Amino acid sequence: MAARHIDAAAIADYQRDGAVCIRGAFKDWVGTIAAGIERNMQNRSATASDIANGKGSFFDDYCNWERIPEFVDVVRNSPAAELAAAAMQSRSAQFFHDHVLVKEPGTQKPTPWHQDIPYYFVDGSQTVSFWIPIDPVKEATLRLIAGSHKWDKMILPVRWLDDSNFYAGEGDYLPVPDPDKDPSLKVLEWEMEPGDAILFDFRTAHGARGNPTAARRRALSLRWVGDDARYVERPGRTSPPYPGHDMKPGQKLREDWFPVVFQS
């Protein structure tokens, strides 16, 4: 099942490697995304963080799309939902949440290697996260470990502020990898232009270098789930937490909170 901006070869790459770069899929949406990021940064939520490090800082905030008109437009009207369904090989694309990530010039601290799914209360083989930069990206691009979405265990989730463990039960997880020292791990990374997008499975291990350049690195992430995604309980507080959701293990995510945007 192909769609606009993605062909059968790219879908096969996604299924095999857990990640693929789609060129120009959001080139007509760069201005809208930029305005949404600026609105979000000027109107931060309680979940926002701004980590100063050296000369730079790293801003992130999530779960704001319903109060940011530009993000509503992107979620509802851009190619994202159809692309998500095609990459996941799912009949539907259900929106999970948005995430704004801004690395200011001179930010030294890298984004640590991690997988998203241990932090989430959702599981399934049909998941996809979009990473859409609105600035040219070279040194500060996303880095992903090919095939890590098929690992038997997940990487130990840690808190980014202090690298402490997110949950107890360290033995249930893999230690955080260092693919720069392990030649058996294949790293995927792409230089990107505004409006390009990396699509990756929630289970795909990824990280990013700091931003040593003199330019900002602004990106919007959009997270989607497909037909087989179900609510699961984790051994602690998830991120995002979504208090009061009232879902039970094995249920599909409630559609009044997590809308189905595409259905074939």
UniProtKB/TrEMBL annotation:
UniProt xrefs under Pfam families: PhyH
GO terms for MF: 2-oxoglutarate-dependent dioxygenase activity; iron ion binding
Keywords carried by this UniProt record: Dioxygenase, Oxidoreductase
Keyword field contains Oxidoreductase: yes
SUPFAM superfamilies: Clavaminate synthase-like
Domain of life of the source: Bacteria
InterPro entries referenced in this protein's UniProt entry, alphabetically: Phytyl_CoA_dOase-like
Name under which the protein is recorded: Phytanoyl-CoA dioxygenase family protein
Organism: Mesorhizobium neociceri
